């Protein structure tokens, strides 16, 4: 279990409150996990005051108060709840980043052209031509669109890497009030509320919190893209991939 999963398991539960609204609370069960909403009056207990987040909605149907997810998390979407979770974790994780990038350097990191790569701005694609791949991925960069990644000066570009390449990613969370992470997954749009596990061992940068005086939270990960296919890089925070925080990751 990753640190992000442990944090969500320990801190968050989604429950239904009267009228189909949703809330988040802190569970008392040590093994609790981020799950579908429970019926009001169920055995799930909380130790913090819950906050009504409005109605959730299936991704395949209309949203609005009173709509409820089915028997699993599949198809469930609630942007307000996803934002609340990310804001809470952004605060809690602010001082818990492996390293930090000075804020003055973050914009340049998101614009940097990777070595051994070519860009096609019209196609929003970055293609790597060597077996050693390295790039920066900045979430919600300064002046950039919300719920996006900036890589090589592009927004959520398609990344094309050779099969067997060793991939190093410097992930920087530049969002001022929400936690974000970076992960390569086999899941494809439309995504579930939780987008899935990493497709390659090590292809996961955990959720990083809000910036501090030290700078923007940063984590460097390395993995091997050892199987051809079309994958997606996503923010693994609940609901963020559904809100547009993803791009294609093609291994050829």
Q: What would your notes on this structure say?
A:
- The chain is mostly beta strands.
- It folds into two domains: 3-77, no CATH class; 99-251, Immunoglobulin-like, CATH 2.60.40.420.
- The protein has three helices and 17 strands.
- It has helices spanning 3-11, 79-92, 103-111, and strands at 13-17, 21-25, 57-58, 76-77, 99-101, 117-120, 125-128, 132-139, 149-151, 154-155, 158-161, 165-173, 180-185, 204-208, 216-225, 229-234, 246-251.
- It has a seven-stranded mixed beta sheet.
- The chain is globular.
- 42% of the residues are buried.
- Residues 10-72 have low confidence and may be disordered.
Radius of gyration: 18 Å
Strand order of the largest sheet: 6-7-11-17-16-13-14
Largest sheet: 7 strands, mixed
How many β-strand runs? 17
CATH fold field value of the largest domain: Immunoglobulin-like
- Domain unit count: 2
Write the layout of secondary structure elements.
Layout: H1 3-11, E1 13-17, E2 21-25, E3 57-58, E4 76-77, H2 79-92, E5 99-101, H3 103-111, E6 117-120, E7 125-128, E8 132-139, E9 149-151, E10 154-155, E11 158-161, E12 165-173, E13 180-185, E14 204-208, E15 216-225, E16 229-234, E17 246-251
Parallel strand pairs: 7-11, 8-12, 11-17
Antiparallel strand pairs: 1-2, 3-4, 5-15, 6-7, 8-9, 9-10, 12-15, 13-14, 13-16, 16-17
């Amino acid at each position: 279990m990753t640190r992000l999963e442990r944090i969500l398991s320990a801190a968050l539960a989604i429950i239904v409150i009267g009228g189909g609204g949703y809330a988040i609370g802190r569970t008392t069960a040590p093994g609790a996990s981020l799950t579908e909403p429970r019926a009001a009056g169920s055995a799930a207990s909380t130790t913090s005051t819950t906050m009504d987040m409005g109605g959730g909605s299936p991704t395949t149907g209309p949203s609005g108060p009173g709509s409820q997810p089915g028997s699993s998390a599949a198809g469930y979407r609630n942007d307000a709840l996803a934002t609340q979770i990310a804001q809470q974790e952004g605060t809690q994780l602010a001082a818990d980043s492996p390293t930090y990038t000075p804020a003055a350097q973050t914009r340049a990191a998101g614009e940097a052209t990777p070595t051994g790569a070519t860009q096609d701005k019209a196609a929003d694609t970055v293609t790597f031509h060597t077996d050693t791949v390295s790039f920066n991925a900045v979430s919600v960069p300064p002046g950039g669109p919300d719920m996006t990644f900036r890589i090589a000066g592009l927004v959520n570009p398609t990344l094309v890497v050779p099969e067997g390449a060793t991939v190093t990613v410097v992930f920087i969370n530049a969002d001022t009030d929400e936690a974000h992470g970076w992960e390569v997954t086999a899941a494809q749009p439309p995504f579930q509320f939780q987008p899935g596990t990493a497709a390659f061992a090590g292809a996961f940068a955990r959720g990083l919190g809000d910036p501090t005086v030290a700078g923007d939270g940063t984590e460097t990960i390395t993995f091997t893209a050892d199987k051809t296919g079309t994958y997606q890089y996503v923010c693994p925070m609940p609901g963020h991939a559904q809100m547009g925080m993803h791009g294609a990751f093609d291994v050829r």
